[in-house]
Amino acid sequence: MHRTIRGQLFLAFLVTTLLVVLGMYVFMRWSLNRGFSEFIETRQQEQVTNVIEGLSEYYKNNQGWGNLAADKQKWIDLLWQANPHHHDRPHSWFEQARTEPPDFWPPALPEPPASKKRFIPFGLRAMLLNADKTIIFGRQDALPQLSLQPIRYQEKIVGFLGLLPNKTVNHDSEIRFMERQSEAFILIALIMVLLSACLAWLLAFILGRPLKRITTAAKALAVGRYNIRLPIESTDELGQLAQNFNDMAGALEQSEQSRQRWVADISHELRTPLAVLRGELEALQDGIRPLTTEAIDSLFGDVMRLNRLTEDLYQLSLSDQGALSYRKIPVNPIEILIEDLAALKPEFQNKHISIQWINKLSNAVNIYADPDRLSQLFRNLLNNSVNYTDPNGQLVISVVRKIDKLVLNFSDTEPGVPEHELPKLFDRFYRVENSRNRYHGGAGLGLAICSNIVEAHNGTIQACSSSLKGLAIQIELPISL
């Protein structure tokens, strides 16, 4: 059976509230019964004390129980007057006791209806015994059940007041009070259950509404609608969840846009050299262009440019996925850079580009890096300078240490890069139109690969305008201790 989160929240809140109400009802009933029992016991003890005081006074005035034993009415009056809550007229059962034989006490009580509790007045549970525990008022068969309280006169026990046990509420008003309290508790419990149901529904609706919106938005996101966003209406966990969802949707939207641009750029970059190759081959087939060494060299150059593009794409895809193998060891990057400069020196000489080396390091430094990837990084930067610097230009390479960072700066002469285009230089396939062309530059992937390599070594790379009116690339790499 399919259950909604709103229904589950409703049931959870309702069951929790029902358990709380039930617990409160049971506790209140237990507390009332216990408190009421203590109240009844206290009042009974008060009556016992009053009766004993009255009997002690009677014994003092009459110097014995002889007159009382012959006066049942006086015994009834003493019991009735000892109750501080007595009414003007004794109960009908006391009236019945007057008509019974003097030696019969207490009177026989009628059996109560099955639906009602027995009403036993305090006086009908009292018996009077002599000091030797012979009966003055009472029944012989009830003696084993009695709880005896001594009656004293001049520090001597002159008799005993015996009480029959009573496990029930012993007054009509007390019974009615307990019944009214039970009815009130049940009514309050029902009202609380109704209120809890309303509150549970309201909370389930309030909490379920943002969850339902998130579910709907997640379904839209699953089918490719990455522009969907959730309203943020609070700062609690649900608000944070909505914010995280929006961040995820924004990242997916940006990733999808990058993927679309990636596919479009690759198609465009591959289409151009393929079209050139096709045109030249068709010209050779049609006899428009003779098959000479120059024609073959031109075709070979186009194939090599296509090969460089596919290799750059492969390297970039590996670095994006983190699949480039990095075998990091402590190395001296300056030695690697000097070797790469020596390897590319003929290309700089062919364009009459001079190289100025500025080393401000007082001691050799090591960094924890992959020497092959560092060489790839340096050669990409040096190739950029060769390809994009005008003939008779200059490249200045400076190296300096800043605390725990090694800073390398590659600064060349014209042409420069407009200020607004500097942040885009590390984007893949990005080329500055006035200086980067397919013949000299390639597909615009070199600096993107450089950025990935530097990040893999926990460093930073940035581009800025050079003081030589060209481009400056600055790299910071952490120095290993």
Distance between the termini: 63 Å
Can you tell me the overall shape? rod-shaped
Strand content is 5-15%
Mean pLDDT: 78
- The percentage helix is 40-55%
Largest sheet, in brief, is: 5 strands, mixed
Main-sheet strand order equals 6-8-9-11-10
What's the count of strands? 11
Q: What is the overall number of helices? A: 10
Class computed from helices, strands and strand pairing: alpha+beta
Order of helices and strands: HHHHEEEEHHHEHEEHEEHEE
Q: Low-confidence spans: pLDDT under 50, at least 5 residues?
A: 434-441
Cα gyration radius (Å): 53 Å
Q: How many structural units, i.e. domains?
A: 3
Tell me about this structure.
The protein has helices spanning 5-62, 66-69, 72-81, 92-99, 172-222, 237-286, 293-321, 333-350, 371-388, 446-456, and strands at 126-130, 135-137, 147-153, 156-163, 329-331, 354-359, 367-369, 394-402, 405-413, 460-465, 469-478. By secondary structure, the chain is α+β, with helices and mostly antiparallel strands. It folds into three domains: 5-107 and 116-173, no CATH class; 237-321, Helix Hairpins; 329-478, Histidine kinase-like ATPase, C-terminal domain (Heat Shock Protein 90), CATH 3.30.565. The chain has a five-stranded mixed beta sheet with strand order 6-8-9-11-10. A four-stranded antiparallel beta sheet has the order 2-1-4-3. Strands 5-7 form a two-stranded antiparallel sheet. The model is unreliable at 434-441 (pLDDT under 50). It has ten helices and eleven strands. Helix 6 (237-286) packs antiparallel against helix 7.
